[in-house]
Amino acid sequence: MVLYKANKDGQRCNCSCTNCPLKEDEFKATKVIDKKVTKAIDKVVTNNFWGFPIFILFMWVMFECTFTLGQYPMDWIDAGVDWFKGFIEANMAEGALRSLFADGIISGVGGVIIFLPNILILYFFISLMEDSGYMLRVAFIMDKIMHKMGLHGKSFIPMLMGFGCSVPAIMSAHTLESRSSRIITMLVTPFMSCGAKLPVYVIFTTLFFPKHGAIVMLSLYLIGIVVAVFSSRLLKKLFFKEDEVPFVMELPPYRVPTLKSALHHMWENSKEYLQKISTVILAASIIIWALGYFDLIIPIGRAVEPLLAPLGFDWKMSVALLTGLPAKEVIVSTLSELTMEAYTPLVAFNFMLFVLLYSPCIATLATIRHESGNIKWALFQAAYSTLLAWILCLIVYQIGILF
Prior knowledge:
Blueprint: H1 35-45, H2 51-91, H3 96-113, H4 116-132, H5 134-141, H6 143-148, H7 156-161, H8 166-172, H9 179-188, H10 198-208, H11 213-239, H12 259-293, H13 297-308, H14 315-323, H15 330-338, H16 345-357, H17 362-372, H18 375-400
Helix pairs in contact: 2-3, 2-4, 2-11, 3-12, 3-15, 4-12, 8-17, 9-11, 10-11, 10-16, 11-16, 12-15, 13-14, 14-15, 16-18, 17-18
C-alpha cells in the first residue's frame, strides 16, 4: 500500500481530503528529526515483536494521565456545578421553573461539562502522536491485522480517527480506493471509542474501578478494536468477496511536536464539545427533565427494561441508553438527573461495554448513509451493532453472576 508519498524532507501529502490527518498546516510541527535517528527509533517502535506492546504502553500512559491529571479540574468543576445548583435552589421559589434550572439544565449539562478536562488531556496526547509521526507507525504496525480483516492497512487511519469522532473518521474513508474497504471501514469505525463515550467511561470507572481506571478504559478500547476485526471478517465473507491488493507504506521522518499545535487541537476539540453541550445536550437535558417531572420517564424505562434486564440493566439505564442515541454524552446527563443506584462493578462494566458497541449517534448514521450512498448500510449498522452489543453483554453478565 502507498499511504502517501513523502519527499526527502519528510513533507506530508497535499491531497484534497479535508479530514486527512497527514495534511500540513500552520500548526503542525516543523522541526524534522534526523533520518538516522528516525531509522533507529523505527527499528524499535515498528518492530514485529515490540511494536504492538509499545503502542499498548503508550495508550495506558495516556489513559492513566487522563484519569490522574484530569481528576483535579474535574473536582473543581463538579464543586462549581454543585454551588451553582445550590444557589439556584436557595434563591428561586419552589416550583417547575426552579426544578427546570436546578435539576434539568444545571444537573444535566453540568454532569457532562465536568469531563471537559479529560477530553482535553486525551486530545493532547493524540495530537502529540499525530504531529510526531508516531500515529502513522501505528498504522504500519496494524497493517498485518488489517490484511487479515480483508482491509488495506490504510483503513486503520479512519478507524484511528474514530477515537476522536466517528463522523470525520467515516468521511475520511472516501480516500480508500476499494469500495468494499470503504463500506466495511465505515461500518466498523463506530466500534472505536469516540470522545462522546469517554464521559460514560470516566464516570463509571471513577465510581466502580477507582484503582484500576486506566486498565478498564484500555480494555474497552481494545475490545472495540477486536470487535471491529471480527466484524470486518464477517462482513467481508457475507457481502464482499473480492480480494484486496497489498500496498506499500512509505513513512516520513519523525517531527518534534510543538506546544502550539497541541494547544490548537485541544481548543478545536473542546470547542466542538462545548458546542454540543450548548445545543444537543442542553435540549436533551430539558426533554429528559420534562419527562421526569411530569412522570413520563418511568413508564418509558419500564417498557424497555424487560429487553435489557438479562444484561443486568434497570429502567434508569434503559432510559439512558435510549437518550444516548442522539449523542452519547446525553447518557451521563440522563443518569445525573435520575441518580444512579449502587450498581455492582459487573453491571457497571457491562453498561460501558453496551455503550461502546450499540448503535452510534444519529449524526454518525447520517454520515454512513451519505458516504455509502445507501440508507440500508446505516440501518444495517444500527441493527447489527445493537444486536451484537446485546449478545456480548448477555454473555458477560450471565457468566459474571456465576462468580
